[in-house]
């Protein structure tokens, strides 16, 4: 198992397991898990999440997670 720190932003905060908005929380996942596995674990639909950042870089859904990483998840953003 590995431990990942997750931060959810904007409309994704409703998926925080303790209802604490955008406060970081830990998730344990099996070794070899990818960002898409994290989304499934959290109950976040891929259409609901638009971007994932690790170490300040956008990562694809199939990015393999490593123990201790911090993942920031963002929904689609609109503005003008």
Write the layout of secondary structure elements.
Layout: E1 2-8, E2 25-29, H1 35-42, E3 51-54, E4 57-59, E5 70-74
Parallel strand pairs: 1-5
Antiparallel strand pairs: 1-2, 3-4, 3-5
Overall description:
The chain has one helix at 35-42, and strands at residues 2-8, 25-29, 51-54, 57-59, 70-74. The model has no long low-confidence stretch (mean pLDDT 93). A hairpin with a 2-residue loop joins β3 (51-54) and β4. The chain has a five-stranded mixed β-sheet with strand order 2-1-5-3-4, with helices on one face. The protein has one helix and five strands. By secondary structure, it is mainly β. The chain has a single domain, classed as Beta-grasp domain (Ubiquitin-like (UB roll), Roll). It is globular.
Key traits:
80 residues, mainly beta, 1 helix, 30% strand, globular
Summarize the structure.
The chain is mainly beta. Helices cover about 10% and strands about 30% of the residues.
Please identify which CATH superfamily we are dealing with.
Beta-grasp domain
Secondary-structure element series? EEHEEE
| Shape assignment | globular
How many domain modules? 1
Looking at the structure, the CATH topology is Ubiquitin-like (UB roll)
**Main pleated-sheet profile:** 5 strands, mixed
Task: Give me the count of strands.
Answer: 5
Fraction in beta strands: 25-35%
CATH architecture heading = Roll
List low-pLDDT spans: none
* C-alpha Rg (nearest Å): 12 Å
Question: Helicity level, as a percent range?
Answer: 10-25%
- How many individual helices? 1
**What is the CATH class designation?**
Alpha Beta
């Amino acid at each position: 198992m590995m431990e990942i720190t997750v931060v959810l932003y904007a409309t994704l905060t409703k998926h925080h397991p303790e209802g604490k908005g955008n406060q970081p929380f830990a998730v344990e996942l099996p070794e070899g898990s990818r960002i898409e596995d994290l989304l499934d674990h959290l109950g976040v639909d891929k259409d609901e999440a638009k971007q994932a950042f690790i170490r300040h870089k956008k990562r694809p859904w199939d990015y393999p997670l490593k123990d201790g990483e911090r993942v920031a998840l963002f929904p689609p953003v609109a503005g003008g």
